[in-house]
Amino acid sequence: MPSEPQQNHLLIIEDDKGRREFLLDAPLYSIGRDPKCDIRLVSQFVSRRHATLVQLTNDDGTFFYRIVDGNAKGRVSANGLLINGRKLQAHDLRNEDEVVFGPKVRAIYYLLRRDAVVTVPPDEFDITLISPNMIGDPEDD
Q1: Cβ distance 52 to 28 under 8 Å?
Q2: What's the DSSP call for residue 26?
Q3: Is 77 exposed, middle or buried, given 0-12, 13-18 or 19+ CB atoms closer than 10 A?
Q4: Which string of DSSP letters, residue by residue, matches 96-135?
Q5: What is the mean pLDDT of residues 106-115?
Q6: Facing residues of 115 across strands?
Q7: What's the domain range around 17?
Q8: What is the pLDDT of residues 47-91, one digit of tens each?
């Protein structure tokens, strides 16, 4: 019985507020200092609308996220994005990518994959018989 692989997209944010986890499943996320952002960054060193996460579909029907510097209208952030040590305007996120938004403000992206396990209830006639001589007397030990 074939099973479809399951995937979860996780973004771990570290900023002045500490460490927080976001399970990603929406088609679009705004990231920044503005309280109206979907993922709020707590730091004076990041832009109000610092970055945007966009969900895109792979050929196999699964999806991935692209992070883009700035807001959804194309206005870039003041500091830009440092992704895996390189300054980039946009990047298709891969497992364990690190995104630095500013001093002491970063995110780590995880793509968690697992095969779906199909569980079937046991057959109602699956009975194991135990012979009385299979059970030893505890006094014999």
Answers
A1: yes
A2: S
A3: buried
A4: TEEEEEETTEEEEEEEEEEE-----PPPTT------GGGS
A5: 88
A6: 5
A7: 5-115
A8: 999 999 999 999 988 999 999 999 988 899 999 999 999 999 999
* CA torsion angle 19 22 27 32 (round to 10): -20
Overall number of domains in the chain: 1
- Cβ atoms of residues 82 and 105 within 8 Å: no
The CATH number covering residue 50 comes to 2.60.200.20
| Whether residue 140 has pLDDT greater than 60 | no
pLDDT at 45 over 80: yes
10 Å CB burial of residue 60 (0-12, 13-18, 19+) is exposed
Q: Is there a domain that residue 103 lies in?
A: yes
For the chain, give the mean pLDDT. Answer: 87
Distance CA 129, CA 74 (A): 70
Q: Is residue 123 part of a domain?
A: no
